[in-house]
Design a protein that fits this description.
heterodimer; B: mainly alpha; Hydantoin permease; 22 helices; 73% helix; 0% strand; globular
């Protein structure tokens, strides 16, 4: 009985939060910008170079 | 019967672990997230990892191999953290849309089983630090009794986990400074114990391998495994970040640079030990006891012991919460007890460190295709969009129900990825079945095969219908 109460409470809490997010937050907005992608690209290239340098070192 | 304060706290934590966070609950900037994640990432097993790969690599190879692959893997597999911050959810909620609710339950159990041997490593390190401490006091513990010392750390860690969130909070306050203290001591000893020339000119004994490239690729496989070992648990903290880029970069730098730095320090420590005494060891406590001056050795061994008890407690707590999220009807204490029995059995078996590379590889063969499927799903299948109502089964008929809670495309892709790696390298016997291993290792193959199979399956007409892709 106790666990059933808990699961139902949990589901209600989740529903409340999802509803709030749907009404107040733009979930489709992408905040990972162009500069981040450039930095990711540089990180990948540098790490690959480090790996290859280690192989031939 | 009224619930105790501890029960309420645990239920609240589990709910918060599952439910999406609201914008006002997100309180971390880059620096906050970076410090918290780094505190978790510099566990004492980093030194065991570094000492293991140092047996196959010279100093320059150690730098390239350790930092190169850890940064590369983390830069790529951390990308889906963007959704974790955007939706305020853990990765296991997104996984429901890939593997189904029941598929996730199976994967949760497998992921915990594959990850928990790390805590047996912690127990072995604790037993080793205790043995060395007692040896400094003139008491020699017979080797056969040493696993029993590890049992002590497991039981103390379990007591912390049973204590719930309050006990965890208090133990973390001791654990993180203790781990930082060990880290600082290890770095100083590694850099000063022997002349730098000795470390720079060190040559590992690779006579058991066909050459330098095989040794390099075996070490690479271990480092790939180390990088992937964080993956399924690394989405919990970044979802507290205010911005997507903060969550991504804090995770990538913590697991891709900070954790490998301490692996590297462990590797240099092992090399210093070899240069000074002609003996290679992958036990950092033994090395600290031999290389450090008696007071520093005493301090570092005590810190290692405290750090490992704390890690054990936090690990049991976090993994029990993960299991409870998947099986909410089961009592939290039951999971803590089961995890304790599991890690006790591994510790008394006393072979986890001997089979360190094997268990790491098995873990990666599972985690690599899971992460590949997640990346493909996030960028190429769902195009960064998730229906929260379907993922939380708030609709009468959720599109993520699939086949009675199992998604055979997602689960099948993982199985195929796992098998493809097993066809290249056997992690238990160490046997190499295919020359592909010498070029990219086995885990990378499981990563690409798992991701590619999922992508192709989802792009077919029946696949799109099954996945409910518009």
């Amino acid at each position: 009985m106790k666990q059933t109460d808990y699961i139902s409470e949990q589901q209600q809490e989740v529903e409340r939060r999802v509803e709030y997010l749907e009404q107040n937050v733009d979930m489709n907005a992408n905040h990972f910008g162009r500069r981040d992608w450039i930095a990711v690209g540089i990180t990948v290239v540098v790490s690959l170079a480090l790996l290859i340098w280690g192989f031939f070192a | 019967m009224a619930k105790s304060q501890r029960e309420k706290q645990i239920e609240q934590e589990t709910t918060l672990g599952i439910a999406p966070l609201l914008p006002e609950e997100k309180k971390y900037g880059f620096l906050d997230a970076f410090l918290v994640i780094s505190g978790y990432a510099i566990a004492t097993w980093c030194y065991t990892q570094g000492a293991c790969v140092a047996q196959m690599l010279d100093f320059r190879q150690l730098i390239g191999n350790t930092f190169g692959i850890n940064i590369l893997v983390m830069a790529i597999v951390s990308l889906p953290i963007v959704f974790s911050v955007r939706y305020g959810i853990d990765v296991w909620i997104w996984f429901r849309s890939i593997f189904g609710l029941n598929g996730c339950k199976i994967l949760t159990v497998l992921a915990v089983l594959a990850n928990f041997p790390w805590y047996a490593v912690c127990a072995e390190l604790f037993s080793s630090s205790m043995s060395n401490l007692l040896a400094m006091g003139g008491i020699i513990v017979p080797e056969s009794l040493q696993p029993l010392l590890g049992v002590g750390s497991i039981l103390l860690g379990t007591a912390i986990a049973v204590g719930g969130p309050t006990a965890i909070q208090k133990s973390t306050r001791i654990m993180v400074p203790a781990m930082l203290g060990v880290g600082i001591i290890v770095v100083i000893i590694a850099m000063t114990a022997v002349p730098i020339d000795g470390i720079l000119t060190y040559k590992p004994d690779i006579s058991m391998y066909s050459g330098r490239s095989e040794a390099y690729m075996r070490a690479l496989e271990l480092n790939i495994a180390f990088a992937f070992s964080w993956s399924v648990a690394m989405f919990v903290l970044p979802r507290l970040c205010k911005k997507e880029s903060q969550g991504y970069w804090a995770t990538t730098v913590s697991y891709g640079v900070i954790a490998p730095f301490f692996c590297f320090a462990g590797g240099v420590l092992a090399i210093a030990m070899f240069v000074k005494f002609g003996v290679m060891s992958n036990d950092p406590t033994y090395i600290l006891a031999r290389l450090a001056s008696p007071p520093v050795a005493l301090l570092s061994l005590i810190l290692v012991a405290f750090a490992n008890i704390g890690t054990q407690g936090v690990g049991s707590y976090m993994n029990a919460l993960v299991l409870k999220s998947s099986f909410p009807k089961v009592n939290y204490n039951v999971f803590v007890a089961l995890l304790t029995l599991y890690v006790l059995a591994l510790t008394i078996w006393n072979k986890v460190v001997d089979y360190f590379s094997s268990f790491l590889a098995v873990e990666t063969y599972l985690y690599a295709p899971i992460m590949a499927v997640l990346l493909v799903d996030f960028f190429f299948i769902k195009h960064q969009r998730l229906s929260l109502r379907d993922a939380y089964f708030l609709k009468e008929k959720s599109k993520y129900t699939f086949s009675k809670g199992f998604n055979f495309i997602g689960l099948g892709s993982i199985v195929i990825g796992f098998v493809s790696a097993m066809l290249i390298f056997n992690p238990v016997t160490g046997e190499i079945y295919s020359p592909i291993f010498y070029y990219c290792g086995a885990s990378i193959v499981s990563f690409f095969v798992g991701g590619l199979v999922y992508l192709i399956a989802c792009k077919t007409k029946p696949g799109k219908k099954y996945m409910h892709i518009d």
